[in-house]
Write a structure and sequence with these properties.
Layout lengths: L1 E5 L4 H12 L4 E5 L15 E3 L5 H10 L2 E6 L6 H6 L1 H22 L3 E7 L22 H20 L2 E7 L1 E3 L14 H10 L5 E3 L11 E2 L1 E3 H16 L7 E4 L5 E2 H12 L6 E3 L14 H7 L7 H10 L8
Parallel strand pairs: 1-2, 1-4, 2-3, 4-5, 5-6, 6-11, 7-10, 8-13
Antiparallel strand pairs: 9-12
Length: about 325
């Protein structure tokens, strides 16, 4: 028996697969490589090149590999771009989750950990977000993830599916020297790529209602996040009752300008960021309490902001300068 990791060739998914391996759990990866990297998955891990929307092939593959639980990360994850490509976002995220749930029901796979997002909260009207904070997503990405949570909740009510959804905040750093964030939109890879190529990193918006005018976010290290997935899936398989959603947050906010300074300190490269306009779908501030996850999932932060920055820089791919 094995655990299916959809999106397991991606930045977060690959870290989850490595964490499962360290815990002595077998995994199978499904990924269509639209944003993932085949080399992130070690040769000994079964790899299926497939989009989860392809329902018949998905059922066949899950049956062949005797899957007992699913960690579902596969999605179109870019909030800003989702505003420009809503139909694509809905099809990949809501459609993919629906296809997966139908396959799980057909094969009687009884547990799922869902990769959700802080984007379900939109711009909160509280200093610190908890799981009870109102959900008001401001992008098709956030909306599609919230609907994914609802789909899983409804399926659980109908079939007894054991489940939980983990709402991520800003996931950064690297826990393995060969794994890195290659997103063309996330802050850390954008800054690192710019510096590696001799360019000035960019700040998107400096007129937000925050102390320095730049967005404030809650940053967590990807290795800590991966461990939370392992704990969640193990407890579901053991029959433990978990909450429907958990925030995986730090509880402390850091601004984009502060991140820029941390990057400068870690790399020894002095720079003045180039200020651009705001990106659509980016709320001003999101900081969350991880108290509930600490209670039920042993959630704790073992990496500092300096660790996050240094590990991201150390794992960066080598790219030629323009």
């Amino acid at each position: 028996m094995a655990i299916l990791v959809t999106g397991g060739a991606g930045y977060i998914g690959a870290h989850v697969v490595r964490a499962l391996e360290r815990a002595g759990l077998e995994s199978v990866v499904v990924d269509d490589l639209s944003s993932g990297h085949r080399e992130f998955v070690r040769p000994e891990v079964p790899f299926i090149d497939l989009n989860v929307l392809h329902a018949k092939q998905l059922v066949d593959q899950l049956a062949e590999h005797h899957i007992e639980a699913v960690i579902h990360l596969a999605a179109f994850k870019y909030a800003g771009v989702s505003v420009e490509r809503p139909a694509h976002t809905w099809r990949q995220n809501a459609g993919g989750t629906l296809s997966l749930l139908r396959a799980m029901e057909r094969l009687d796979i009884g547990a799922i950990v869902f990769s959700s997002t802080a984007a379900v909260y939109g711009t909160p009207d509280v200093e610190t977000v908890t799981e009870d904070t109102a959900t008001r997503p401001e992008s098709p990405y956030g909306e599609s993830k919230l609907v994914g949570e609802w789909m899983i909740r409804d399926q659980a009510q109908a079939t007894g599916l054991r489940h939980t959804s983990l709402r991520y905040f800003n996931v950064v750093g690297s826990g393995e020297p060969d794994l890195y964030d290659s997103s063309p939109h996330n802050l850390f890879p954008l800054v690192i790529r710019a510096l590696a190529q001799g360019h000035r990193p960019r700040i998107f918006g400096e007129d937000y209602p925050t102390p320095d005018g730049t967005c404030v976010r809650d940053y967590v290290h990807v290795a800590d996040l991966a461990e939370a997935h392992v704990t969640a899936v193990r407890r579901l398989l053991a029959g433990n009752e978990l909450e429907r959603v958990y925030n995986l947050g730090n509880g402390e906010g850091v601004s984009v300008r502060q991140i820029m300074q941390s990057v400068s300190d870690a790399t020894g490269i002095a720079f003045e960021p180039e200020v651009m306009g705001r990106r659509p779908g980016d709320p001003a501030r999101i900081v969350a309490s991880g108290a509930l996850a600490a209670r039920d999932l042993d959630w704790k932060l073992t990496h500092t902001l300096d660790d996050m920055v240094a590990s991201a820089w150390a794992s960066r791919p080598v790219e030629p300068a323009d």
